[in-house]
Amino acid sequence: MAEALQQRLAAQLLQRIQDGTYPRGSVFPSYRSIAAEFGAGHGAAYRAVQMLRTAGHLEGQPRGRLTVRDDPGVRTLANPDAEWPHGRGETERSRPRADEDLAIRLRCEPRTQVACERVELLDPDGRPSILVTSWWRGRRRPHSSFRISVAIHRMTSDEAHLLGLPTGALALLVDRTRLDAAGVVTEVADLVLPADRWTVGR
Questions:
Q1: Residue 35: enclosing H or E segment and its boundaries?
Q2: How far apart are the two ends of the chain, measured CA to CA in Å?
Q3: Which listed residue, of 47, 137, 144, 161, carries a Cα 20 to 30 Å from 37's Cα?
Q4: 59-79 burial, b if ≥16 CB within 10 A, otherwise e?
Q5: With 80 as the cut, is the pLDDT of residue 172 above it?
């Protein structure tokens, strides 16, 4: 019975999104205000809101500010090596030791200490759009060429949290390798792009 109540409430909230009562891009009401308006318990309201978020109608952090998601426009990442023309969000830096997979990509020994940088690339409206994690050895060096491969990827909870999307949402994973003039690997990176917003072209 509780599940039926949550589904009914979620359907009513979705109807309000579809009829424009809650416009695209607007801040979505808190689950507490929804509980008060619809005469539902806080738990039922919270779970109904999370159902909409999981279905992709809302975006943002689960216990933070949620917004009504715009109908996604699909853009093409024409050059995965180009400078990003919009803003950057949070940047995290660390110095982990390479696991076996990363060691193969960087052509180094496992357990070698490397530099790591994770950056949120923002849309023109300031929302996280792409998550880029880069690794390199020693000093960051210039490169003269790059190569990429693209695969389908389900977002980890950490990636989804940073991009304001549900865990397990489909993404494109771009594996980028930068090379110097002699063909030596200088840097590798993973670019995570929400699959409903992006295609990749060269």
A1: helix 31-38
A2: 52
A3: 161
A4: bbebeeebbbbeeeeeeebee
A5: yes
